[in-house]
Design brief:
Blueprint: E1 12-15, E2 19-22, H1 30-39, H2 41-47, H3 51-80
Antiparallel strand pairs: 1-2
């Protein structure tokens, strides 16, 4: 296992030398998440009714770090393949 989370235990894992899998969107930076928020608000509310209200503060507080981590994962992924 390479990454885990509270809701989904196996977020990223490797099997052997060549099989990698993720259960999350490491490419989702703040810009993309904002697009998803505006494109799919009903779906998002059905999953987490408070997400759209909480997202602006969360993006302000954690967004730059999350964007940097996602970019680092993407660069490492490309280097690996």
């Amino acid at each position: 296992m390479l990454a885990s989370g509270a809701n989904v235990k196996h977020q990223a894992y490797r099997i052997g030398r060549a099989v990698y899998a993720t259960q999350f969107h490491f490419e989702a930076n703040r810009k993309l998440v904002e697009e998803w928020n505006s494109s799919f608000p009903d779906t998002i509310r059905s999953i987490d009714p408070d997400w759209l209200d909480h997202y602006p503060l969360l993006a302000q507080k954690e967004g730059a770090v999350a964007d940097a981590i996602g970019a680092a994962i993407a660069r490492a992924w490309v280097a690996q393949i």
